[in-house]
Design brief:
Elements lengths: L3 E6 L10 H9 L2 E5 H4 L9 E5 L4 H13 L3 E6 L8 H11 L7 E5 L4 H9 E2 L5 E5 L7 H13 L3 E5 L9 H13 L4 E6 L7 E6 L12 E5 L5 E3 L2 E3 L8
Parallel strand pairs: 1-4, 1-5, 2-3, 2-4, 6-13, 7-8
Antiparallel strand pairs: 8-11, 9-10, 9-11, 12-13
Helix pairs in contact: 3-4, 6-7
Bound molecules: S-adenosylmethionine.
The site of S-adenosylmethionine (SAM) has 25 residues, from helix 5, strand 9 and strand 11.
Length: 246
């Protein structure tokens, strides 16, 4: 009998932000598959097999989960945040597309609270009007495409959320990102650095593009940029719900 794969989001870090639906899927699972640090967030118990794997092996991990399900196991694939945001849900469907016999597996995608929304909630309402999310890693897309999307989103006055802003293997690109944003939005635009949100290591810092430094971000940071109307209100930052024609 074919089993099932649930692709779940564990939220940004706090156990209080794991949804009851995800907790129930984990309670019924026979196997948990995922990147090591995410699998480490799941409590072990008798009868549950944990399968941690390295970073950047998403398709192999997805195929492993699907093979386990084909053998009748109840598999949960874990992502941080939401599984559909720069995470395992797309990788699983890519693996199915490559090997359509996996269509026999029942797949469920269970949402989680993504980093940008957890960060925005801590700060106030910086994403309260139109916004977009951009992954700044050029691992799966060319750098010129990232630059183009940044410029077009800035010209359209979107607020933005940046995932994977800076890593040891590409320390200089975030500096280029800040240069592009200053060029398009000016020095006064508000930018927020939210690190390890909802964990004991949480740090949140709001500044302007003129004052922003590349080392304010690392791979545990989601960066939010306001739109042209985003403003401070006491210790909060918010973006009004309305906009004038540009
Ligand atoms: C591979 S992406 C995964 C995103 C995840 N699926 C989500 O929905 O939040 C990893 C990036 O998410 C962001 N991120 C994940 N958890 C975070 C947290 N607790 N605080 C701040 N940023 C976080 C960082 O930008 C990190 O580099």
């Amino acid at each position: 009998m074919t089993g099932r794969v649930s692709i779940v989001g564990l939220g940004p870090g706090s156990a209080a932000l794991v949804t009851p639906e995800v907790a129930a899927a984990l309670a019924e699972a026979t196997d948990v598959v995922g990147y090591g640090p995410y699998v480490a967030r799941v409590s072990s118990r008798p009868g549950l097999v944990l399968h941690p794997s390295d970073n950047r092996v998403e398709l192999e991990r997805a195929a492993h989960a699907l093979d386990l399900a084909m053998a009748g196991r109840r598999v949960v694939v874990v992502s941080s945040g939401d599984p559909g945001v720069f995470a395992m849900a797309s990788a699983l469907f890519e693996a199915i597309e490559r090997s359509p016999h996996y269509l026999a597996v029942e797949v469920a995608v269970l949402p989680g609270i993504t980093a940008m929304l957890a960060a925005a909630a801590r700060i106030g309402a910086p994403l309260g009007h139109d916004f977009c999310a951009i992954n700044l890693s050029d691992n799966l897309k060319p750098w010129p495409l990232i630059e183009r999307r940044l410029r077009l989103a800035a010209q359209a006055d979107f607020a933005m959320a940046f995932y994977n802003p800076r890593s040891a293997s590409r320390p200089h690109q975030f500096s280029q990102v800040l240069d592009i944003l200053r060029d398009e939005c000016g020095d006064a635009r508000l930018i927020m650095f939210a690190r390890a949100v909802t964990t004991p290591d949480e740090q949140i810092h709001t500044t302007t593009l003129g004052e922003a430094e590349p080392d304010m971000a690392d791979m545990r940071t989601v960066v939010l940029l306001g739109n042209g109307a985003t403003r401070r209100l006491g210790r909060y930052v918010y973006t009004p719900r309305s906009a004038r024609a540009g």
